[in-house]
Structure prediction request, 50 residues.
Amino acid sequence: MTIATPRDLTSLIRDAPAAGNYASTREVIREATRDWKFKRAHRQRKLDAL
Prediction:
């Protein structure tokens, strides 16, 4: 899979491992994807409760 991101977002992703926050850019993307998945599920649960 190839993902295109804006230049500023690409820089943030690449800088995170260099700063020691993550082991790799893949780890950054995995965490971001998990967060996105969690937020979508949370939003759906809120909508279902209406």
Summary: The helical segments are 7-18, 25-48.
